[in-house]
Amino acid sequence: xxxxxxxxxxxxxxxxxxxxxxxxxxxxxxxxxxxxxxxxxxxxxxxxxxxxxxxxxxxxxxxxxxxxxxxxxxxxxxxxxxxxxxxxxxxxxxxxxxxxxxxxxxxxxxxxxxxxxxxxxxxxxxxxxxxxxxxxxxxxxxxxxxxxxxxxxxxxxxxxxxxxxxxxxxxxxxxxxxxxxxxxxxxxxxxxxxxxxxx
Length: 199
Hints:
Helices cover 71% and strands 0% of the residues. It has 199 residues and is mainly alpha-helical. The protein contains twelve helices and no strands.
Protein backbone atom coordinates (compact mmCIF):
# COMPACT_ATOMS: atom_id res chain seq x y z
CA UNK A 1 0.00 0.00 0.00
CA UNK A 2 2.79 2.44 0.92
CA UNK A 3 4.61 1.59 -2.30
CA UNK A 4 1.47 2.33 -4.31
CA UNK A 5 1.10 5.78 -2.69
CA UNK A 6 4.74 6.68 -3.30
CA UNK A 7 4.45 5.58 -6.94
CA UNK A 8 1.34 7.74 -7.35
CA UNK A 9 3.15 10.63 -5.71
CA UNK A 10 6.14 10.23 -8.02
CA UNK A 11 3.82 10.01 -11.02
CA UNK A 12 2.04 13.22 -9.98
CA UNK A 13 5.36 14.97 -9.48
CA UNK A 14 6.59 13.83 -12.90
CA UNK A 15 3.36 15.01 -14.53
CA UNK A 16 3.76 18.40 -12.88
CA UNK A 17 7.37 18.63 -14.01
CA UNK A 18 6.42 17.70 -17.57
CA UNK A 19 3.61 20.23 -17.58
CA UNK A 20 5.90 23.01 -16.34
CA UNK A 21 8.50 22.16 -18.97
CA UNK A 22 5.86 22.17 -21.69
CA UNK A 23 4.52 25.57 -20.59
CA UNK A 24 8.07 26.89 -20.36
CA UNK A 25 8.68 25.70 -23.92
CA UNK A 26 5.56 27.54 -25.09
CA UNK A 27 6.64 30.79 -23.43
CA UNK A 28 10.15 30.48 -24.90
CA UNK A 29 8.71 29.77 -28.35
CA UNK A 30 6.54 32.88 -28.10
CA UNK A 31 9.56 35.01 -27.20
CA UNK A 32 11.86 33.49 -29.84
CA UNK A 33 9.66 33.20 -32.92
CA UNK A 34 9.10 35.99 -35.44
CA UNK A 35 6.03 34.27 -36.88
CA UNK A 36 2.78 35.98 -35.87
CA UNK A 37 0.87 32.80 -36.64
CA UNK A 38 3.11 30.77 -34.31
CA UNK A 39 2.70 33.41 -31.59
CA UNK A 40 -1.08 33.23 -32.00
CA UNK A 41 -1.01 29.44 -31.57
CA UNK A 42 1.14 29.71 -28.46
CA UNK A 43 -1.14 32.35 -26.94
CA UNK A 44 -4.22 30.24 -27.67
CA UNK A 45 -2.54 27.25 -25.96
CA UNK A 46 -1.51 29.29 -22.93
CA UNK A 47 -5.03 30.73 -22.64
CA UNK A 48 -6.42 27.18 -22.60
CA UNK A 49 -3.94 26.10 -19.91
CA UNK A 50 -5.03 29.11 -17.83
CA UNK A 51 -8.44 27.45 -17.47
CA UNK A 52 -7.07 24.72 -15.16
CA UNK A 53 -6.19 25.73 -11.56
CA UNK A 54 -3.55 22.93 -11.56
CA UNK A 55 -1.49 25.17 -13.84
CA UNK A 56 -1.70 28.36 -11.78
CA UNK A 57 1.64 27.91 -9.99
CA UNK A 58 3.45 27.21 -13.27
CA UNK A 59 1.79 30.14 -15.03
CA UNK A 60 2.71 32.44 -12.14
CA UNK A 61 6.34 31.28 -12.17
CA UNK A 62 6.51 31.83 -15.94
CA UNK A 63 4.89 35.28 -15.65
CA UNK A 64 2.19 34.35 -18.15
CA UNK A 65 -0.28 36.86 -16.67
CA UNK A 66 2.25 39.60 -17.56
CA UNK A 67 2.40 38.25 -21.09
CA UNK A 68 -1.40 38.29 -21.41
CA UNK A 69 -1.56 41.89 -20.14
CA UNK A 70 1.14 42.92 -22.63
CA UNK A 71 -1.00 41.54 -25.47
CA UNK A 72 -3.86 43.95 -24.75
CA UNK A 73 -2.06 46.86 -26.42
CA UNK A 74 -0.98 44.92 -29.54
CA UNK A 75 -2.25 45.84 -33.02
CA UNK A 76 -2.87 42.18 -33.88
CA UNK A 77 -6.51 41.54 -32.88
CA UNK A 78 -5.86 37.83 -32.35
CA UNK A 79 -3.11 38.62 -29.84
CA UNK A 80 -5.59 40.81 -27.96
CA UNK A 81 -8.34 38.16 -28.12
CA UNK A 82 -6.14 35.35 -26.80
CA UNK A 83 -4.56 37.60 -24.16
CA UNK A 84 -8.05 38.53 -22.99
CA UNK A 85 -9.12 34.88 -23.04
CA UNK A 86 -6.20 33.93 -20.82
CA UNK A 87 -6.87 36.78 -18.40
CA UNK A 88 -10.54 35.84 -18.36
CA UNK A 89 -9.60 32.36 -17.12
CA UNK A 90 -6.99 33.58 -14.63
CA UNK A 91 -9.12 36.40 -13.20
CA UNK A 92 -11.34 33.90 -11.39
CA UNK A 93 -8.45 33.17 -9.01
CA UNK A 94 -7.97 35.78 -6.24
CA UNK A 95 -4.18 35.73 -6.68
CA UNK A 96 -4.36 36.63 -10.37
CA UNK A 97 -7.28 39.00 -9.84
CA UNK A 98 -5.10 40.99 -7.42
CA UNK A 99 -2.17 40.89 -9.86
CA UNK A 100 -4.35 42.29 -12.67
CA UNK A 101 -5.70 45.02 -10.40
CA UNK A 102 -2.19 46.03 -9.29
CA UNK A 103 -0.89 46.26 -12.88
CA UNK A 104 -3.33 48.78 -14.38
CA UNK A 105 -5.49 45.89 -15.57
CA UNK A 106 -8.83 47.70 -15.30
CA UNK A 107 -7.63 50.47 -17.59
CA UNK A 108 -6.15 48.03 -20.13
CA UNK A 109 -9.27 45.86 -20.11
CA UNK A 110 -11.68 48.80 -20.29
CA UNK A 111 -9.86 50.00 -23.42
CA UNK A 112 -10.66 46.64 -25.02
CA UNK A 113 -14.40 47.32 -24.75
CA UNK A 114 -13.93 49.28 -27.99
CA UNK A 115 -12.76 46.19 -29.89
CA UNK A 116 -14.65 45.16 -33.02
CA UNK A 117 -14.07 41.53 -31.99
CA UNK A 118 -17.05 40.27 -29.99
CA UNK A 119 -15.03 37.55 -28.23
CA UNK A 120 -12.61 40.19 -26.93
CA UNK A 121 -15.48 42.35 -25.66
CA UNK A 122 -17.19 39.38 -23.98
CA UNK A 123 -13.92 38.49 -22.23
CA UNK A 124 -13.44 42.12 -21.17
CA UNK A 125 -16.90 42.25 -19.57
CA UNK A 126 -16.34 38.92 -17.80
CA UNK A 127 -12.93 40.01 -16.47
CA UNK A 128 -14.38 43.29 -15.18
CA UNK A 129 -17.05 41.29 -13.33
CA UNK A 130 -14.33 39.05 -11.84
CA UNK A 131 -12.27 42.11 -10.82
CA UNK A 132 -15.21 43.74 -9.06
CA UNK A 133 -14.28 43.94 -5.36
CA UNK A 134 -15.11 46.39 -2.59
CA UNK A 135 -11.86 48.26 -3.31
CA UNK A 136 -12.10 48.24 -7.11
CA UNK A 137 -15.87 48.75 -7.57
CA UNK A 138 -15.70 52.50 -8.22
CA UNK A 139 -13.17 51.94 -11.03
CA UNK A 140 -14.92 48.88 -12.49
CA UNK A 141 -18.26 50.72 -12.56
CA UNK A 142 -17.00 54.14 -13.68
CA UNK A 143 -19.48 56.07 -15.89
CA UNK A 144 -17.65 55.31 -19.15
CA UNK A 145 -17.91 51.57 -18.47
CA UNK A 146 -21.60 51.85 -17.56
CA UNK A 147 -22.31 53.74 -20.78
CA UNK A 148 -20.66 50.89 -22.70
CA UNK A 149 -22.72 48.28 -20.85
CA UNK A 150 -25.94 50.17 -21.49
CA UNK A 151 -25.05 50.32 -25.18
CA UNK A 152 -24.13 46.64 -25.27
CA UNK A 153 -27.39 45.74 -23.49
CA UNK A 154 -29.15 46.97 -26.65
CA UNK A 155 -27.04 44.76 -28.90
CA UNK A 156 -28.58 42.34 -31.38
CA UNK A 157 -26.04 39.77 -30.20
CA UNK A 158 -27.76 37.68 -27.48
CA UNK A 159 -24.46 36.87 -25.74
CA UNK A 160 -23.33 40.48 -25.59
CA UNK A 161 -26.78 41.74 -24.60
CA UNK A 162 -27.16 39.17 -21.81
CA UNK A 163 -23.65 39.57 -20.38
CA UNK A 164 -23.89 43.38 -20.33
CA UNK A 165 -27.26 43.09 -18.58
CA UNK A 166 -25.76 40.75 -15.96
CA UNK A 167 -22.92 43.23 -15.40
CA UNK A 168 -25.39 46.08 -14.84
CA UNK A 169 -27.47 43.95 -12.48
CA UNK A 170 -24.68 42.32 -10.47
CA UNK A 171 -21.96 45.01 -10.36
CA UNK A 172 -23.92 48.26 -10.23
CA UNK A 173 -26.49 49.86 -8.00
CA UNK A 174 -29.84 50.90 -9.46
CA UNK A 175 -28.85 54.48 -8.74
CA UNK A 176 -25.64 54.15 -10.77
CA UNK A 177 -27.52 52.70 -13.73
CA UNK A 178 -30.20 55.40 -13.53
CA UNK A 179 -27.51 58.12 -13.46
CA UNK A 180 -25.73 56.62 -16.45
CA UNK A 181 -29.00 56.37 -18.38
CA UNK A 182 -29.73 60.01 -17.57
CA UNK A 183 -26.27 61.06 -18.78
CA UNK A 184 -26.81 59.19 -22.04
CA UNK A 185 -30.17 60.81 -22.71
CA UNK A 186 -29.89 63.50 -25.31
CA UNK A 187 -26.58 62.08 -26.47
CA UNK A 188 -26.27 60.03 -29.62
CA UNK A 189 -26.87 56.31 -29.17
CA UNK A 190 -23.14 55.65 -28.82
CA UNK A 191 -21.11 54.93 -25.72
CA UNK A 192 -17.96 57.04 -25.80
CA UNK A 193 -17.91 56.53 -29.57
CA UNK A 194 -17.57 52.80 -28.98
CA UNK A 195 -19.21 50.82 -31.79
CA UNK A 196 -20.81 47.44 -31.29
CA UNK A 197 -18.43 44.60 -32.14
CA UNK A 198 -18.96 42.58 -35.27
CA UNK A 199 -20.41 39.10 -34.86
